[in-house]
Amino acid sequence: MFADRARIFIRSGKGGDGHVSFRREKYVPDGGPDGGDGGKGGDLIFVVDPGLNTLVDYRHKRKFKAGDGQEGGKRHCTGANGENMIIKVPAGTVIKDADSGKVILDMANRTEPVVLLKGGRGGKGNQHYATATMQAPKYAQPGQDARELWVDLELKVIADVGLVGFPNVGKSTLLSRVTNAKPKIANYHFTTLTPNLGVVDLAEGNGFVIADIPGIIEGASEGVGLGIQFLRHIERTKVFIHLVDGASVEGRDPIEDIKAINKELESYNVDLTSRPQVIALNKMDVMPEEDREVLMELIHEEFPEDNFKFFQISAVSGEGVTEMLWYVNNLLKELPSEPVEFEQEYFPEFSVDDAPESVIVTMVEDGLFSVEGSRVERMLGYTNLESEKGFQFFQNFMKENGVLERLEELGIEEGDTVRVFNLEFDYYK
């Protein structure tokens, strides 16, 4: 079964919490804090597996989670790190954010594993919070939260040349002639239901990889028929061989077919129209010479020579095929050798913990004020407000970070309520 799309849930590991403990040994009645740090959460990693060519494994298993870091222990012991989760995908897989559809990662040119979601940092144990005035801190830092995301996996085959055209124009026949691929061939629409890859092997080490893209029909870019399912596979190709029934064996108009296919390419992705395109007029062996001349005159009137390069071929007899392949081979030498890669548009690693330190003070309504921001959230994570020392630390934090001053600027009065995330306090000078 060929599967080129899948939606999965991915999650990195949560960082282990820091530990609160104190040194307890014989003859050491007042030992200091010795709570260890929490372990780091496992990373969520993607890696290319050369042995895979579909995404079928992800049709059944949908959720992938890295291991959480363990809590720190006494005697300065650090918790164990969470186990990494490694997801293997075929080369050419594009990973997108499921909600926005934006590209997170393209695995076209990746030879090394890529960390997509980093595991949470382990929290610091109470040993880190001992000061001259607070020698027995009773709080520790919690581990950083895990990061999670629904993503879409899309496989876009990696090929130098894309073979496009309407159904039944001879694409599979041409592919079987010029490569070692063995596509199924029959006379009905969408005989080819998977993109077939083949290697064109020319003399003296020349050659290229070609992909037979299943037949595109009018309206495919708008979801008509099955063509839309395969248009994504031509996005990586550098050159198109556009196969047309030049002899009108199927009763089609080759000029109108050229226009129609290019319209679908443009509708799907306008960038595709800027790529070099070779028009292969197929089945010309059954067309009389005088009719060929008339056809070529009409084609050159309709399409400027500098836009497309035309070849008269026969996929069955081999007429004109070698000449066309050498032209494409030389054309590819003028283009970049690396596969087309999609730029990153979505950055999951950016989160509250990576954001610039901030404290945001606002008036929600008369008598109610809000204090938020990444710095405040982090402070609450390692402060025990139930202890006298912890609450004193909280008050000093509010003063040193200008929160009290900002509240006064907003007109706060005694008895008003200050909401700090999910906590509420009465304000008194």
Account of the protein in words:
This protein is an alpha/beta fold. The protein has eight helices and 18 strands. The protein has helices spanning 171-178, 228-231, 254-268, 289-302, 321-333, 374-381, 388-400, 403-409, and strands at residues 5-11, 44-48, 63-65, 85-89, 93-97, 103-106, 114-117, 148-155, 161-164, 196-201, 207-212, 239-245, 277-282, 309-312, 360-365, 368-372, 417-420, 423-426. The strands form four sheets. It has a six-stranded mixed β-sheet with strand order 10-11-9-12-13-14, sandwiched between helices. The longest helix has 15 residues, at 254-268. The protein is elongated. The N and C termini lie far apart (71 Å).
Tag the structure with descriptive keywords.
single chain; 429 residues; alpha/beta; 6-stranded mixed β-sheet; 5-stranded mixed β-sheet; 8 helices; 22% strand; elongated
The order of strands across the largest sheet is: 10-11-9-12-13-14
Low-confidence runs of at least 5 consecutive residues: 183-192, 223-227, 351-356
What sequence of helices (H) and strands (E) makes up the elements?
Answer: EEEEEEEEEHEEHEHEHEHEEHHHEE
Find the structural class using helix and strand composition: alpha/beta
Number of helices: 8
Helix content: 10-25%
Multimeric organization: single chain
- Arithmetic mean of pLDDT: 82
Radius of gyration: 32 Å
DSSP strand tally: 18
Shape: elongated
Most strands sheet: 6 strands, mixed
Percent in strands: 15-25%
Distance between the termini: 71 Å
